[in-house]
Design a protein that fits this description.
The structure is a homodimer. Chain A is of the alpha/beta class. Among the domains of chain A are: about 190 residues, Glutaconate Coenzyme A-transferase; about 160 residues, Glutaconate Coenzyme A-transferase, CATH 3.40.1080. Chain A contains 19 helices and 20 strands. The model of chain A has no long low-confidence stretch (mean pLDDT about 95). At the A-B interface, helix 6, helix 11, helix 12 and helix 13 of A face helix 6, helix 11, helix 12 and helix 13 of B. Chains A, B: One of its GO terms (molecular function) is transferase activity. Chains A, B: It comes from Silvanigrella paludirubra. Chains A, B: Pfam families: Mal_decarbox_Al. Chains A, B: InterPro entries: MadA, NagB/RpiA_transferase-like.
Amino acid sequence: MEEKINSKFKDNKKRKINRICNKLENKWVKSEDIVNILENIIEPFDRVCIEGNNQKQAVFLSKSLNKVNPKLVHDIHILQSTLILPEHIEVFENGIANKIDFSYASIFGKKLAQLCQEGKLKIEGMHTFLELYARYFLDLTPNVCLVIAEKADKEGNLYTGANTEDTPTIIEATSFKDGIVIVEVNEVVDKLPRVDIPSDWVDILVKSPLKTTIHPLFTRDPAKINETKILMAMLVIKGIYAKYEVNRLNHGVGYSTSAIELLLPTYATELGLKNKICEYMMINPVPTLIPAIECGFVKKIVSPGGEAGMNLYVKSRPDVFFTGGDGTLRSNRCIAQLVGLYGIDLFAGATLQIDIYGNSSTATINRLTGFGGAPNIGGNSSGRRHISNPWKKAGLEYQKNDDEIFKGKKLVLQIVETFQPSGEPSFVEKLDAFEVQKKFQMELPLIMIYAEDVTQIITEEGIANLLLCRNLEDREHAIRGIAGHTPVGLKRDIKKINELRERKIIIYPEDIGIDRKDAKRDLLAAKSIQELVEYSQGLYLPPKKFID
Amino acid sequence: MEEKINSKFKDNKKRKINRICNKLENKWVKSEDIVNILENIIEPFDRVCIEGNNQKQAVFLSKSLNKVNPKLVHDIHILQSTLILPEHIEVFENGIANKIDFSYASIFGKKLAQLCQEGKLKIEGMHTFLELYARYFLDLTPNVCLVIAEKADKEGNLYTGANTEDTPTIIEATSFKDGIVIVEVNEVVDKLPRVDIPSDWVDILVKSPLKTTIHPLFTRDPAKINETKILMAMLVIKGIYAKYEVNRLNHGVGYSTSAIELLLPTYATELGLKNKICEYMMINPVPTLIPAIECGFVKKIVSPGGEAGMNLYVKSRPDVFFTGGDGTLRSNRCIAQLVGLYGIDLFAGATLQIDIYGNSSTATINRLTGFGGAPNIGGNSSGRRHISNPWKKAGLEYQKNDDEIFKGKKLVLQIVETFQPSGEPSFVEKLDAFEVQKKFQMELPLIMIYAEDVTQIITEEGIANLLLCRNLEDREHAIRGIAGHTPVGLKRDIKKINELRERKIIIYPEDIGIDRKDAKRDLLAAKSIQELVEYSQGLYLPPKKFID
């Protein structure tokens, strides 16, 4: 029976590996052979998945891919969650690849748009992270993947360390679908601290001759948190977290959410909220959470990736973080995004623009940045069936009449100052996203979170509780009412605002007993990076840029 | 620096393991010691995750858990996706556990309800699979998990074989959160066919003295497919798959979707739909797909679990199925459910009851079965951002006015005969789910898929295209129009039906050129299990119950 199988359909992988078998020692190849290996393994029109996370990238393999002969390797279709290195763009300029499915283009949003207009690149799809991962397992399975591991042993077992991120997801999709898994490895050791990926999921390994660095993308210096952010944090804690009993949540990255984190041990504790809110979080191990962890406020954290300088501190708190037997963080973006969709009751994020109905976007003219994870974490799925107090309370406020079948609702906050640091207003009558859509003839506007999903907008003026709005007019006036001196705010209607305050749709600080004068930096549990280090008992080791 | 860490917070796991270290040989314990081991490892109020999949269960560990002394082990909180063995219920009757978070209770829906009413059990939450997995990584991380592997080597590396299902998800959540992973193993070998779980994610192993069987839960005998199912399959293929160009989808399990699968090589091919529809599927490796795979219709399949008798066949088609280096299926329910949420454009399912607005439910009085995966696969997430033709076309039909921001929509079908095999009508004015809600004082009714998410209902009468309905009245009459001789159907209004046919909301077979007389068993690519075996060239080995 067995002889019938393994015939024609297994050949593709074998054929490719056979071409390079003289260069393979076990599964290892020499770094100087890597360009040749890629030329033999990647065929025209192949789907190639490049590991490009927020925090770590397969740098050596990305550079090497750009050195292949485009006469041999061309028309390849890149699958990549985050584009972050110049090499991620050059591969299109060099005529090696001409299609992409991606999630987030970081600083390369403008460049991507250019390449499309020059006809060098076709964007096949823009996805949130989870959508892209899902498609890796269906119609977009990689023929080849180029990934990175911190360490490997000689057999090829991999240790991904604190920044596991996308590695397990990419390798599972490729390896179990007969694709070829190529791994660059920073260090080869006899015994791994732990095994993150078993060697038989891996085909080819190469020791990278490059040094790679993890950048502290998610670290916010408490010294830079101003009193406006503190006021907004007080509004969020008292006006939302306490009211809805929010205990499972995600914070986006920014000074506003850092301010909330640093107010948990002080302001929130004084309000008697310890053991009641913010016990469970999905978030990278950001240093501004150290005081809240040390005082027992935040109890458990699941992370999509790591953060520079936090490894020893994380190791000291296996009760809080997911860690391996070696004590190092185990992160996993796929799982963290899943938690962001179905496990949490609240997402606190920020944005560049909000329109008068509550649609928000980070798209600006000439850039195609993509979405990352925000639409997923800030979105509702009608598939959710488990109940929690915040989900129920939000659902009850949102319910328009008693006949409706009751459903809960995820709380989705947009915390923005009325003006961006650039001086541009955060509130606009119409999003730039619609202009971008026209310009690039896209079928969907680049909206990050749809109005129906946003439940509260918080500015230095107050809270707009969109859950209680009963029609578009309510929404519009609620938003104008907290939009301050922006053109959108100046069009406010005092009569309507008074009505909305009565209905608790607009909530100014004084309405919930918050005195603006109390929003002082004294409230921050730590006022500097140095104080975070002290809270950590010296286990947080801030990157150089924060101590110079 | 290192000495500061690993102190108080790592103690819990060490303390537990130390208690049994005299019984551990490497990580192995004797099967006769297992009850004592469980008594020492599980503490009162612990969260214990029991592997209970659709297809495989940790039988030996479940039986052993029921033998612990309830004076030592009590008040435990069970986390379990599927309850399927008597032992999964006895643990509550025996006073060992008193809380549960689960997804699907299979045949034990009634028993669960009883236990709740007797005060022996508190249902903490009912979830879809993905929600429960998400919470394993946030607020419901297991202190101990009891899982099963097909094989292990002496070091404790695990081989889960074709039915990987929940194992990686449960172990990742437990192992990396300092919980204790206990594995029952069917066979101990020197060298594994492949490594599914590395040994350092595992704490305790025991060779099971029991024989376990995989039941063919998802196999449907083509001999039992009647002409009504064939007619409905024709309606779905021509009226929906062809119209919307559905290429990425999930089929529920039932004769209706089996009929569709068996019509792909015949009816769908004659319609010129090969290479246009149904190329990518999320589904268990069901035997009724063999003809469609062999004729090159279905090209890729990702599976939540395996299916009895299909292992050799799967091994012969690594181009279609996800398989390991050993050729055996790699299934993964978490990933498959993720594909079901974000990777597919259509879900074709069935239900017990549909109300006049399109809400559907499998709940009946006295049973609390839970949801499994249907609400997730049949639900929309506002987080989706990538575009496909079916999603776009469905979204355009659903859009009520041109001012709305355009969004796509997942196609969600309910394929039901107007009467269930029991003789009960499939269509009702009001779902039993609301009675159940009252009876058990639940906060949500047990609705499987909400009306807003269902896009088409298909019966032997025709198709109701709910996408084009503009108000509740439209929906009600569309549904009555295809509800046949049920009380709901008898209340139809001929004038309204004619209007809805004009508007293509009600589609009868003749409206799309389908002659009811053509719905013959001759159209089935295989008419019996034996013909499926022939299609597979003898590689499908049907379980005994299908060949007797």
